[in-house]
Amino acid sequence: MTEEITRIEHSAPTRQFTVLLSPTRRGARLARLLATAHLGDWGLPTEPAVNVVAELAANAAVHGRVSGRGFRLDLMVHRDALLRIEVTDTRGERLPPAPGAVDVPAGDAESGRGLLIVEALADRWGIDVGTAPRKTVWAELDLVRADATGSRGSTTRWAVTRWPAMSKSL
Fold first, then answer.
1. What's phi and psi for 138, nearest 5 deg?
2. Which is it for strands 71-78 and 135-147: parallel, antiparallel or unpaired?
3. What's the chain look like in SS3?
4. Which residues, including other chains, have CB under 8 Å from residue 43's CB and lie 6 or more apart?
5. Looking at the whole model, is its pTM more than 0.70?
6. How far is CA 135 from the centre of its chain?
7. Residues paired with residue 158 on neighbouring β-strands, in sequence order
8. Distance set, CA 132 to CA 49, 71, 94, 145 (Å)
């Protein structure tokens, strides 16, 4: 049985933000705050994207930390239809489980749910191994335009195409 991999071809982003942050709790918190600010400035919904950023940035600070090297946060909007979040760290030898292969931790475990949250909130996510020693964990959220009042010619706002229910096993 062969495994079919779907890869979406992206056009050049219409909006983009990139920042290098320290691999600390403070850096992860700043990633979440900056994502909130930029998505708000772009008129895009902050939820669930900010939760995805928070989880990926926390993972970079905890599991991707290398002394003296930061992690990079990229936010990109493609054709006003797709938000791509990328977090790149310098621990390319420490790869997280692939999408669909993330194990649910024991009920009393205090950690281990971050990628399950990303998997639940993102439309797609994955891992790209870059040139040594780098890896990027990315997530994509499909965006749609939603009419704010339900009539033509009214203000346009953005919405994510889905908000999946969180599993009780989380």
1. -125, 155
2. unpaired
3. CCCCCCCCCCCCCCEEEEEEECCCHHHHHHHHHHHHHHHHHCCCCCCCHHHHHHHHHHHHHHHCCECCECEEEEEEEECCCEEEEEEEECCCCCCCCCCCCCCCCCCCCCCCCHHHHHHHHCCEEEEEECCCCCEEEEEEEEEEEEECCCCCCCCEEEEECCCCCCCCCC
4. 157, 158
5. yes
6. 14
7. 145
8. 28, 14, 12, 39
Place of tokens 């970079």: 60
Amino acid at 131: T
Q: For the chain, how many residues are written?
A: 170
How far apart (Å, rounded) are the C-alpha atoms in residues 170 and 117?
8
pLDDT in tens, the chain (170 residues): 444 444 455 567 789 999 999 999 999 999 999 999 999 999 999 999 999 999 999 999 998 888 889 999 999 999 889 999 999 999 888 888 889 888 888 787 676 788 999 999 999 999 999 888 899 999 999 997 554 544 433 344 455 555 444 443 43
User: Residue 110, Cβ neighbours under 10 Å: how many?
Assistant: 7
